[in-house]
Amino acid sequence: MSKATFYHAGCPVCQDAEKNMLGFLDQSKVNVEVVDFNQNASRINEAESAGVKSVPALVLDGQPYHINYGASIEDVKNG
Amino acid sequence: MSKATFYHAGCPVCQDAEKNMLGFLDQSKVNVEVVDFNQNASRINEAESAGVKSVPALVLDGQPYHINYGASIEDVKNG
């Protein structure tokens, strides 16, 4: 089973991607965790370590896939 | 059934996304078509009309989702 983590920050682009893309992932193949930095700022470092530069982003088995562009990680850090 | 079109241009970022992301889409929910502009340049206009600005991109029920950044549509047009 693969692991995907969807990182977002509540931005409109993030919400769109969560609503319209995540549901198409095959849950028999991948476990999806959703992390909202507004509620879990402590996980920003983990995302950066995986190579996440902006949100929304999906880290799939350790590889970062940025989906459109909502906000940079720097913006997210600065609130 | 939803429809997804994955547009790419053979770039390394495109190949990575095709190989590592597309397989996780739930084929019971979405029909996925892969369009390589190197073989189907005539479909660039269709992608642009859907809002695709760069490749690789997945157009999901008409909405464009750019996945990382391989090349701009302008670069693709110019070969």
UniProtKB/TrEMBL annotation, chains A, B:
Residues 9-64 form the Thioredoxin-like fold domain. SUPFAM superfamilies: Thioredoxin-like. InterPro entries: Thioredoxin-like_fold, Thioredoxin-like_sf. This is Thioredoxin family protein.
